[in-house]
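call fold(seq) -> tokens
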Amino acid sequence: MKKINLSIDGMTCSACSNGLEKYLNKQNGIFNATVNLVMANATIEYDEKILNQEKIEEFVKEAGFKSLGEFKEIKFEEKSKKEKIKFILFSILAIVLMYISMGDMINLPTIPFLNPHTNTTNYMISLLVLTICFIIYGIDILKNGYKNLIHKTPNMDTLVGIGVIASLFYSIYNMYNVFMGNRMQVMNLYFESAAIVIYFIKLGRYIDGISKDKTKEAIQKLVKITPNTAVVKVDGVEKTVTLDEIHKGDIVISKAGEKIAGDGEIIFGKAHLDEAFITGESKPVSKEIGNKVIAGSMNYDGYIEYKAERIGKESTISEIVRLVIEASNTKAPISKLADKVSGYFVPGVIAIAIITFLVYLIMGQGFETAITSFITVLVVACPCSLGLATPLAIVVSEGLCASNGILVKKSEILENAQKVNTIVFDKTGTLTYGKLKIAEILNYSNISNEKLLQLVGSIESKSTHPIGKAFADYIEQNKMPILEVQEFENVAGYGIVGKVENEEFILGNAKILEKYGVNNKYIENEKELAENGNSIIYVAKDKEVIAIIGVNDIVRENTKEVIDILNKDKIQTIMLTGDNKETAEKIAKDIGITKIISNVIPSEKAKIIKDLKQEKRYVMMCGDGINDSPALASSDIGVSVNSGTDIAMDSSDVILTKNDLRSILNLIKISKKTIRNIKQNLFWAFFYNILMIPIAIGVLKPIGISINPMIASAAMVFSSITVILNALRLRRIKL
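ret:
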């Protein structure tokens, strides 16, 4: 199976995106297709043995749209000057057209040579010419409407196209009657209706385009973080190159005031770097030889040379952009509901318009009244606002999350986060910083403490666990050489095993001693260390415990505040840790967590999550994304606290790039506000159509309330603007 993301041109409403999505999903060889109206792209999973990009693009064309090739980046260009001039020109023509056609009706001064009574021919020809100009201006609408009707996926353009063509030909027919001598028919020309409907549709799309671009501003800021050029060092000579010319392994130079061009490792120099955009750390971080740098970081005060490791699409910032775009390409259940409704709505409106037309003819109201009502129903019911209701709110919220250090992989998370009633936290690296330090050593052997720590540190250097980092830091600080380790084995949830100087050492918690049959007669000593808040590392050799090492950790800033707020909101908080009970209880007591499950291995964590879900609880699991991956994958929403560089964790649904647990509160808040906003949008969209369609049919004519196609098109634009403005309110959420 292969995946491709194509840029799509020609989509104007949810009926378009929904129709294309349905058409693609019906094709042999396509496993799944998701079409995004706001991003104007389609993500397609297909069988490469049956299909290729060229064939898929043919499917897109058959459905009435155009593929612009693979979706590589989001363009944030403002409306071109040419497009603005064209829009201004047609705005002036619209005013002129309305003046000519309706000025006489409202007692405005009449242009003599265009007077409908004295210069009928000039009057009719001027209206026809101006209307043809508007037809050319909106030819894309008519083409799309026709293609979608042919492919049995009628959309908004279909409604507009039918209405415009009907109005145009009816007016031409009456114009012919005038030339044949029936001069009274000059008052039954509806050229302006066809033209102004197109103008208002174009107006709505112009506003939509601007609004959709605004919803992507957070992604735009991320895209612009990295510099356009960088300086590389080749054979001792500095050379300025573009980012595309940098390769892995190149030595890149960064001077004070410059941005880092790619992820890498410092090999020379020292500097303070601002990484706030990714880590949330407000103060510049000191970086020296051996430290990692992130693309987009600002070099404040030093000179460094770093070896490029992850560049272009592989860099951290590119990964963030990719995740945000992929998230916006998924559909929340509430969005799928709106798409489904839109799919039935357009054919339903066409049916209502036809019935209205026939009823007026049967009632003897005349062809003019029947055709006008027919056109009005089609125009007033265009589902623009319905199509924008969900995707705009989702994209605005995605951008808001991204700009606040919350990377959401699937848009359905924005709908479901507000359902969470249980949050399970890992301890080390999640509730705490995971920056452990060696606090106490109980040495029962004849090996010196220094040698013991060198042996243990050498084995721990092979581990990715935060505890291993504590020993690695100790060895580095004391400038000890790392000894060669053989037969290293990571025993997930228990500890590690390795041979150093031909002797096997077993390191880990009390469970690893049971697993390897090691006699443990130091349980009371373990409790004493644990009561002081230490995580315990047993060191065993030859089936005997030779030492117990206690390492301390620091609780994350704001953790207690976050737990207190969650408890106040009646969201149950649980600590789930592989650490010992005493240490877990001490930390839990300090931060306000009352339920603790300790001494569990990764597979047991996943089982506990599943048990909670069976209790009908909606569970969020928050972990460090490594040992917690089974639990993260098993939860309803998996949240990973990010280290700042390794963000592509498949097991989690959400990545907190700021390493701040307050982001969980922000995610839940954004979720609640987003769903409320979408429901408001859908309400107004449906309310508008429920209200306006009967008026368009003529139900309220007996009490003097009626509308024509021009008013209908203006009302339709107003409904879309209402939904757009409401969705954009999400940008003002205070976190």
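The longest strand covers residues 263-274.
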